Request: fold
Amino acid sequence: MTYLAMIGVAGGLLASGQTDVGGGASGAMQVQSVWDFLVKGGPMIVPIAICSLAALTVIVERLVVLRRVKVMPSGFIDGVRAAMSGGVSSALEYCRVNASPIGEIFHAGLRRHHDSAERREKAIEEAGVREVFTLRKHLRLLAVVAAIAPVLGLLGTIFGMIKAFQTVAISGDALGKTELLAKGIYEALITTAAGLLLAIPALIAYHWLSSRIDRMVFEMDRITVDFFEETLFAQSPSKQSPSNQTPSNASGNIVETSSSDGNGREASVALATH
Reply:
């Protein structure tokens, strides 16, 4: 059910619950359909309706994009591990073919497998930031709709109240005819109801989608860390060959050299000769 339908149902319930006061005036205020409800809301219903369509579009689009099969395909990690048996280049090709947010992050890390752990971690972090930005795309629009919809409704109510009092002021026989003022207030409050009926679901959808993204980001971070620590680093064990032994100069002084600790971090080693 769209936002406009929700607004129309609410308007119908309000109209069905009112008593027949004032005869013809009350009949003129009856809401017979969604379109009738929107027309009685005045010109401010138009931007509220546009905002409702924008919010509905964002929600549907994000629900499609944020499916788990799109973000973290099932079997992706097993596929990468299997591809690693053919070398890093095979794993890179697997990540490229299976395009997804987690695939892009893995591709950035595997592409830096020859670099130090710090540079590899930096590349993974930058790729993660880009993918999180992609996952949160258009959510700001949903937050803006949730924020401005009640304001638009209030503005429409103010315009309606101005119109109502203006009608009473210029009417020569308005004295004692409260239905003239009541009709204007009734129509003015429609925009407030429409704005709230739009803002509440939009706000709920925004926070629900945000929490869904946060959970996915946390899980992708855990999977990425586990993979690179257990798989890639395990394939680069620390090896010290005789040629890497620290040489001593002719005077027997300490000579410094560097060796890898197996995790891509450089460790300074100092040995003394006897």
Observations:
- The mean pLDDT is 74.
- The radius of gyration is 33 Å.
- The chain has eleven helices and two strands.
- The chain has two domains: 1-236, 242-271.
